[in-house]
Write a structure and sequence with these properties.
Blueprint: H1 2-6, E1 13-16, H2 18-22, E2 30-33, H3 36-45
Parallel strand pairs: 1-2
Length: 70
């Protein structure tokens, strides 16, 4: 997934979870978080507008909780 996304023209991409963090790559606009809470903290501070957002994660990570901060 990381290799696929890094070749797309997204402004920003956020990856969440241990597997993503272990395989992170250094590229502008790619951000990696070990857990949902860390990503949630960043999103609370962000002023996202006019953005297309895809949230995909394992059921155990409870990614739906991110909807509350978006």
């Amino acid at each position: 997934i990381i290799d696929f996304v890094k070749n797309l023209e997204f402004d920003e991409s956020y990856f969440c979870g241990n597997e993503f963090s272990l395989n992170k790559v250094e590229k502008e606009g790619l951000h990696f978080f070990t857990d949902r809470e860390s990503l949630e903290a960043l999103l609370k501070e962000s002023k996202l507008s006019n953005a297309a957002i895809l949230i995909k994660g394992s059921r155990g990570m409870a990614m739906e909780k991110l909807l509350e901060v978006l």
